Amino acid sequence: MHKRIFASLHNFLEDGHVLGRNVVCKSFLQALFRLDPFDEYAFFLHDPKAMDNQLEQLTELSALKRAAVHIYPRQHFVSGMLSEDLYCLHLADPVSDQPQAAFLRNRFSRRLFPITSVPHSLNYLNYPSAFLQQIWPGACSRDIICASSRAAQAVLSGYFSMLRDNYKLPDDWHEPEIRLLPLGIDCQRFAPADENGRKRARQKLGIPEKSVCCLCHGRLAVDDKMDLLPLLYAARRVLDEDQAPDLHILISGRHREHDNYPEVLDTVAKNLKIPLTLLLDPNAQAMHEAFACADFFLSISDNVQETFGLTLLEAGASGLACIASDWDGYRDIIDDQQSGWLIPTVAPRDTPRLNALAYGLPENIHELLRAQQTVIDVPSLANAISRLARDPALRNAMGACARKRMLTHFDWLVIVEAWLKILEEAYAAKITPFEQARLATAEHPAFLNFAQLFARHPSYCPHTAELGQKEIRLSTRGLKVLQKKALPVTWNNLELCLQGLDIRKLLVLARHPISIAKLLSRLCETKISQESGQFAVLWALKHDLLEFASNETHKKK
């Protein structure tokens, strides 16, 4: 029975800013190690030590307790495939390494294992070239991109459709399957606040106990997250109503140094006479206190960099009803009028001038200009805020529905189980021996044929047949190595090209002058490929273990 081995080329525990991608990757891996559905976990990384250091903080998880997690240098990926049948390869994103991994799997793996990935933001201008590489003759139904929302699924399909049409790509070139797989949350880390916790948090932040607190938590950046001024305009509408509720706005999140957006929000709120508390760059404890303060949650994303909405999961797991723009993945998270409200959102379909300007602007400026014509309907927003602010029973009912929805559909353990089902379905998609043979020889149009491309670099660069006509023989140094009077100098990773070839056998075969073609034929009898044999011969010539039998100069041709 095959071992079930999970593999990845990415470090899912990367350090750095607390961005959505980093949170998602780390949370997915923790849930995977907790659920522990595989026999082993193999990571092939450029910097193995970085992940080693991070794993030391997660030793309580099942997979780590039984020492099933192994970290290798990236160059061991091919040898790992040759020695073990991997069950799957999962990547932190589809734009780094997915077609390369598929190419290597097709060439070297005995098992055509699924390769899956999860995209995050999809708006970057260099992404078309990255997704263009995904469409090639070697892609198959076991290459999968897991879209986090229906909106993200539509964007990915749009990428591939656009690229196929614009580049007039052949019908027999394929792209990865696009499957729907939401992001998740560790629901154990969040819970509705009790009255004492709510009271303590409000005292700490200076929010009046009797006020109805509307929380907006997320990155504070008007150019790549959301413009919160419509929230303040809607709040003013609510405060102008007859018998207006005692409304207090709490805006919490990370902001960039020297960015004056928080000051703008504070100034506008003061001018509009709206009670506002800004909580900048909260740590984990302060973030939980912000959720404890809140009576309901609000997020009005207007930016194309957003594809899902992790803060909505945190709010729902905290038992908060949520008001949100009817935007991208938000509509997958909120059950409209059950766990919260989706506010009508309007954006234009045709923007040819702005499309062109995008390539002459920093990406955040392009995103800002696009977001500034994305309308979150202010009257509808005000109505939803007023409804929740005035009706504690409605808030509680929606909050309870939101938490139940998070536990049922968005807990990370639920998401990992859904991902495992995608793997099972990928294996159920039959790959015929003919198709597997075709995939094994499929060339990628963007991957370089280095030898041909750099053929003018050396003075002599023959084809294999021409090189085979040359005679070689054992050198004086080669004889000393054969007699164990000297040792050859070798470098790490040489075995990747030698395929286990015994250098001594090579030297024995060359004790008398022999054509390279004949020598290669003899080596191939030991199940060494012709290319590996050729590598061994040229390496031995380079290190003075062999020499050409003729002293003719090899001139550039």
Outline the structure in words.
This protein is α/β, with parallel strands linked by helices. It has 3 domains: 5-184 and 416-441, Rossmann fold; 187-410, Rossmann fold (3-Layer(aba) Sandwich), CATH 3.40.50.2000; 451-548, no CATH class. Helix content is 45%, strand content 13%. A 7-stranded parallel sheet has the order 3-2-1-4-5-6-7, with helices on both faces. Strands 10-9-8-11-12-13 form a 6-stranded parallel sheet, sandwiched between helices. β6, α7 (150-167) and β7 form a beta-alpha-beta unit. α9 (229-239) packs across α16 and α17 packs parallel to α18 (412-428). The protein is elongated and about 105 Å long. 38% of the residues are buried.
Kindly summarize this structure in a few lines.
By secondary structure, this protein is an alpha/beta fold. The protein contains 26 helices and 18 strands.
Task: Pick out its properties.
Rossmann fold; 3 domains; 557 residues; 45% helix; alpha/beta; 6-stranded parallel β-sheet
